[in-house]
Amino acid sequence: MIADTKKLIKSPLNYTGGKYRLLEQILPLFPYEIDTFIDLFCGGCNVGINVLGNKIICIDNEKPLIRLLNSFKLREKEEIFNTIYYIIKKYNLSDSSKYGYEYYDCVSSSGLSYYNKERYLKLRDDYNNRSEENFYYDMLFYTMTIYSFNNHIRFNRNGKFNIPVGKRDFNESVEKKLSYFIDEIKKKNIHFILDDFKRVDFNTYLDNSSFVYADPPYLITNATYNEQNKWDKAKEFQLLNILDDLNEKNIKFALSNVLETKGKRNEILIQWSKKYNVNYLNYNYNNSNYHKRDKKSNNIEVLITNY
Known about the structure:
There is one protein chain. The protein is built from 9 helices and 8 strands. By secondary structure, it is α/β, with parallel strands linked by helices. It has 2 domains: 5-60 and 197-305, Vaccinia Virus protein VP39 (Rossmann fold, 3-Layer(aba) Sandwich); 67-177, Adenine-specific Methyltransferase, domain 2. Strands 1, 2, 3, 4, 5, 6, 7 and 8 form an 8-stranded mixed beta sheet that branches. The longest helix is centred in the middle third of the chain and has 16 residues, at 113-128. Mean pLDDT is 91; it is low at 285-294.
């Protein structure tokens, strides 16, 4: 059954390549009935949180992300918010919802980065130098992403979070988004699993009513959210081979990707996609026909399915 696209839940995490803006086009292309939904690269979970399935498996190889999502799922909402408020107060970060911008000698147009910069860097250093993994550091990680530039998530080759300070803070809009997300994951039979797509044992999850969704890093774009494990041609082929194997087992799948962007073409994907159905999406759409190419951005974004 397809989720009501008028009531979509937005992830409280801003992952590069997040699919929230495309959900109204993607979700109607999914199978009508899904028993077990498996998302191999869940990221901020914009897709998984909005899928209607009896069981939802969200997989990612980013440990801080999976820890955080599990904390949102398993901890009480009051405890989550109280810990975030505690961290904001501890580091003396801005709280514009409570005090406004003038209190910090800032204006909305230029943001809060001047006030928060040194405080944010202290928080970031404390997170990067942590000696243990626990609920407090999960919330520290989330708070850090909220105060980071454009709320982006990125780690360097040494596993250190390296996004600079941003202009915004934990305002009322962000609070509501987090609250709705927590409420939704507590309602669903959803599981967050730390794993790599190459190691997933599909036999653990799959039956004839299962559906696998893959939204990997794109081979021909420069994703900034993770500099540790760059996506390359070898990983591209590995994923496509996995999807071919699923097809042979009559398991339905959908792959989000781009065939072309900024003059670059993914020839590997273009050739592989000829075996399946290619649905063209429009990232900058406005009640548009998603079967047409997004010519303005020279970006050919697609959902490739085997059904």
